[in-house]
């Protein structure tokens, strides 16, 4: 059964069954952010065939590999990393699991958001559901029970280089899972000791890990993947908002629609460009502000010589939006391909495979390496930054009468000089754009050897994902500021364009902003206006239902 599908339990509650093969990005976001969306947590379980397979594989391991005379098999009866040749006796393996948690809980910094942690928990369970990790089914069920009951491990954000996976962050997850005395969880809005949180949730306060359980849980960049999936989802929200901001700026400056004509896009061949142009056309459908009729009206500060002439074409920040926004959409499609593959991948080491003779073999490899995620997040960061880069240029144009086709200087609605207008709002957007530029340096271009050079090439994927989230967060601020400035431009021009209508969709955007930020000619506390506009942008209040 596809994980995008659900079944009903005996209590008629929704249950999501994991197979390790078909988890969708939409499902991950839904499970991760169910509380934020006030829909309740979907219950997650294992597909019956997965349960059967996990039990079968583990039975083989315990009968054949966890004996005194078994050969050294990495992770099952050996040390880890540089200590790979050190044998762990069967009677010491339980202790080894505890000590591995102790040594690997080395994360520092602030705690990750709960939605990131939930995404991490879900995808780790799905990875183990593939049945090639050799982890006991009790571990997977314990993990899913924590997820279903809303017990979320406190995972420090810093400390992973994306080499053998997110060892430190995932070890903190495991420490909460086992009820380590030093571990913490978030439960029902409180930060508690893991044992207290587990007890309150009706779970056993302690849990024993067995051979390979800890390594199977911490090996792989699942924490990075949790951040990456949510970043990619938020990047798409930002891309939709960028189209909305552009459309309102187009109307404020009475822009030319010719650049969005379908035939222009079709001969370029890029599907993202075609989609971006189509979306702008839909947003501006019915607009009388983006017509020659509107452009013939001379605004107060517009400089013209002689008779009115058609504008012919706009500056790049308006005319090239299909090419820029469209390129971002194509990058997001590429990133999604990487992420959905990773979400259904086995990423620990070693992995178990069944031979033709019915025996199992443990193969050591490097599926834990985060290079795919590092590249994807670096590419995403650069692409999303460009949405802000071009947005800030539109905001700047709105403030300059020589570039906005006559809108008042600094978008001042009454007395210029007495009022300063929106110049400092645009300056804040410029500061954020420059900050994003520095964050665009690719994390994947870096590598630093660790573990006595056993891990001599690392991906820095975790930092790549964190940077992507920072840029996207800035993006909603930049776009919120553009919408604020564009709305002021509309308010300033509206009296002179009386009788001409905005597009129905952009009128809704304008009206929604004005619910919280009424129009006025004189300066008001700018920070408050910006905060309100940004809050609306972050809450998707400007995104119209499709």
Q: Would you mind describing this structure in some detail?
A:
- The protein is mainly α and 546 residues long.
- A hairpin with a 5-residue loop joins strand 9 and strand 10 (360-363).
- The longest helix has 33 residues, at 461-493.
- It contains 20 helices and ten strands.
- The relative contact order is 0.11.
- Helix 9 crosses helix 11 (271-283) and helix 15 (371-399) packs parallel to helix 18 (461-493).
- The protein has helices at residues 25-32, 48-64, 93-104, 114-128, 137-149, 167-178, 194-200, 213-218, 222-252, 262-266, 271-283, 292-295, 316-319, 321-343, 371-399, 401-404, 423-439, 461-493, 504-516, 526-538; strands spanning 7-8, 14-18, 43-46, 108-111, 151-153, 156-158, 184-187, 190-193, 351-354, 360-363.
- The strands form four sheets. The chain has a three-stranded mixed sheet. Strands 5-7-8 form a three-stranded antiparallel sheet. The protein has a two-stranded antiparallel ribbon with strand order 4-6.
* Mean pLDDT across residues: 92
Tell the overall outline. Answer: elongated
Q: How large is the radius of gyration?
A: 27 Å
Strand content: 5-15%
Q: What distance separates the N and C termini?
A: 29 Å
* Separate helix tally: 20
Q: What's the β-strand tally? A: 10
Low-confidence stretches: 1-5
Category by helix and strand content: mainly alpha
Q: What is the strand and helix layout of this fold?
A:
Layout: E1 7-8, E2 14-18, H1 25-32, E3 43-46, H2 48-64, H3 93-104, E4 108-111, H4 114-128, H5 137-149, E5 151-153, E6 156-158, H6 167-178, E7 184-187, E8 190-193, H7 194-200, H8 213-218, H9 222-252, H10 262-266, H11 271-283, H12 292-295, H13 316-319, H14 321-343, E9 351-354, E10 360-363, H15 371-399, H16 401-404, H17 423-439, H18 461-493, H19 504-516, H20 526-538
Parallel strand pairs: 2-3
Antiparallel strand pairs: 1-2, 4-6, 5-7, 7-8, 9-10
